[in-house]
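Hi P.,

Sorry for the delay on this. The queue was packed all week, but I finally got your sequence through. Input first:
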Amino acid sequence: MIVSILVWLLVFYIVIIVGARLFENNFIYYPTKYPEGEWAPEKWGLEVEDVFLTTEDGVRIHGWYAPARVELSPRKPNITILLFHGNGGNLTDRIEKIQLLTKVGADVFAIDYRGYGRSEGRPNELGIYEDGHTAYRYLTETRGIPSERIVVLGESLGGAVATEIAVKHPVGGVILESTMTRARDLAIRTMPIVPPSLYLRTKFDNLGKISQINAPVLIIYGTKDTTIPPSHSRRLYEAAREPKRILAIEGAGHNDLFILGHREYGQAVKEFLVSTCDT
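Then the structure:
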C-alpha cells in the first residue's frame, strides 16, 4: 500500500512538472485580442497615432503613439515614454495611465506584445524582448528621438522588457512599477514543492540585470501587493545603481496602484522626467 501511494505521488509529481513545462506560457501571459478592448481612445479625450511595426523575426506588432498634452503641463520635459504593460489585457486597458503620462508633459509610445491586441504572433520571453527592441528602434531611427530623451516604463511583467531594453540600449531613465526580481522567485511562491529549475524556462532576471543599467531609475510599488510582493521592488532598488528613487504607495495592491496612488504616482513620475531632462 505504501509503495503504491509513493508511486502515485511520483506520477502526480511528474505530471505537474510536464504540464508546467508544456503550458508555461499559458500560465504567464493573459492577452486580450482585438476587437476586445476600448479601441476608441478619442472617447477618453486621448489623441493617438496607430503604429504598426515588423520585428526582426517577422512578427507584425501594433502600438499607440500619444503626444504630450503641453497645454496641461507648465513644463514639458521633452521626453518620450516607451510604455510596456503587464501580462494581462492589452494597451487599451492603459488608457488612463497614458492620459496621465501625456498630461505631465511626455509623449507616450505604448505597444502591445505579440499575441496582444492587434499584434500578431504568440508571446514568449525572447519574443516580447524583440518587440521591445523593435519599438525602441522605431523611436530612435524612424522618429529620430535621441536616446537620452527616452524613458522606458514597465509595469509588472513589462518591467522585464523595460529592464532588458535599458541594459541593451542607452536610455534617459527607467521606471519600474510592481516589477518582479526573477520569474523563479514568483514560481517558488506558486509551487513551493516543485523546484522551478525542473519546469521553468522563462527567466525575467531583472535582479541580475538592473545593476547594468546606466541611467536614473525610479521604482514604484504598492505596500499591499500580494501578486508581486513589495520585497521584490525593494531588492531591485537595493541592486540598482545611483541615481535611483523608490516610491511606496501605501495600501495599494498590484492592480490598483495607479488608481489609489494617482496623485503621488503622477507627481513622482513628473519629477523624475524633469530631473532626467535636466541631466
